[in-house]
Amino acid sequence: MTRSTLSLRDATDDDIPFAWKLYSDHCRPVLTPFLGGHWDEVQEQQKFRTIWRPEMTKVIQFGSSCVGWLSTRTARAEVILENLYIAKRFRGRGIGSTILREIIDIAASNGRSVQLEALKETAAVEFYKKLGFERIGVTEMTVEMKYQFSTKLMGGHSNVPQVNRGDF
């Protein structure tokens, strides 16, 4: 992967079908047991529309392919990663790690930590742990995690391809 093949662009409402597909493919198997064993497509799409905010969302592109999306917001002392979804066929290529390390580095350079919630019983929890996130709480469905840059080394990601920092 080279810098020129991985990029971010602002999301638009035209991205809703793509974003919904990634979201539902990831969440359906994990959330269905919490929904009484039934995934109501219409109801879940309506819920999705409440979290889809193009003004806070970036679409991840690998070459000319849309491969994922993320949304963040900044609080006083932290950057909150609200969503990060990578299409299954593009996982394991370092795309999520590259994006997340950039978010961490940018947050750290601004004196902020990075916080997120991951669905329990998913590979995402281990993924975030490997990148240095620590568990700070737990709910019925999620694990709350935080990357506190002051206890981690900044930088040190020189072998990881970079994306344009202006994209965040």
Task: State the main characteristics.
disordered C terminus, 168 residues, globular
How would you explain this protein's 3D organization?
Helix content is 30%, strand content 29%. It has one domain: 3-Layer(aba) Sandwich (Aminopeptidase), CATH 3.40.630. The protein is α+β, with helices and mostly antiparallel strands and 168 residues long. It is built from four helices and seven strands; from the N terminus they run E-H-H-E-E-E-H-E-H-E-E. The protein has a seven-stranded mixed beta sheet, sandwiched between helices. The radius of gyration is 16 Å and the shape is globular. Residues 151-166 have low confidence and may be disordered.
* Overall residue-averaged pLDDT value: 86
Would you give the CATH topology? Answer: Aminopeptidase
CATH superfamily: Gcn5-related N-acetyltransferase (GNAT)
CATH architecture: 3-Layer(aba) Sandwich
Low-confidence stretches: 151-166
Oligomer: single chain
Strand order of the largest sheet: 1-2-3-4-5-7-6
Number of folding domains?
A: 1
CATH class value:
Alpha Beta
Question: CA-to-CA gap between the ends?
Answer: 19 Å
Number of extended strands: 7
Can you tell me the overall shape?
A: globular
Topology diagram in text:
Elements: E1 6-10, H1 16-31, H2 41-51, E2 57-62, E3 65-74, E4 78-86, H3 95-109, E5 113-119, H4 123-130, E6 134-138, E7 142-147
Parallel strand pairs: 4-5
Antiparallel strand pairs: 1-2, 2-3, 3-4, 5-7, 6-7
